[in-house]
Automatic annotation (TrEMBL):
<dbReference type="InterPro" id="IPR004603">
    <property type="entry name" value="DNA_mismatch_endonuc_vsr"/>
</dbReference>
<dbReference type="GO" id="GO:0004519">
    <property type="term" value="F:endonuclease activity"/>
</dbReference>
<dbReference type="Pfam" id="PF03852">
    <property type="entry name" value="Vsr"/>
</dbReference>
<keyword id="KW-0540">Nuclease</keyword>
<dbReference type="GO" id="GO:0016787">
    <property type="term" value="F:hydrolase activity"/>
</dbReference>
<keyword id="KW-0255">Endonuclease</keyword>
<protein>
    <submittedName>
        <fullName>Very short patch repair endonuclease</fullName>
    </submittedName>
</protein>
<keyword id="KW-0378">Hydrolase</keyword>
<comment type="similarity">
    <text>Belongs to the Vsr family.</text>
</comment>
<dbReference type="InterPro" id="IPR011335">
    <property type="entry name" value="Restrct_endonuc-II-like"/>
</dbReference>
<keyword id="KW-0234">DNA repair</keyword>
<keyword id="KW-0227">DNA damage</keyword>
<dbReference type="GO" id="GO:0006298">
    <property type="term" value="P:mismatch repair"/>
</dbReference>
Amino acid sequence: MRANRSRDTTPELQLRALLFEHGLRYRVSMQPISGLRRTADIVFPRARVAVFVDGCYWHGCPEHYRPSTKNSEFWATKISSNRIRDEDTNRALAEAGWTVIRCWEHEDAEVSAGRVIDALDKSTS
C-alpha cells in the first residue's frame, strides 16, 4: 500500500498539464476548507472550485471497480467508507459555496479539463 500515491498520479498530472496549457493557475493537494480534513487534488481558491481525481479501485468506479478476492470483507468496507466520505465531502463543500468536480482516473484528461474550465467560466460570470 505504500506504493500507492495520494498525489501526483498520472491522471492528475495529465489534467494539471492541460489546465496549465490553458493558462490556468491552481493549488495542488490543498484543503479547500480549513478544519475539514479533506484534501482536493486541484484547487482554484478564488473561484471556489475543488477538483478530485478519483482512482477507479479506491473510490469504487461503477464502470471499472472489481471486488477483491482476498480479504474481500475488509476491502468492501473500505471502498464503501471511501464512497460515503466522498459524498460527505461533496456536501460539505457545496454547503460552503464550493463547486466540486469529480473525475475518474479512466476519463480522458481533455474531457475532464473541459469540465473544469466550464465550471471556472460559470464561477466568474
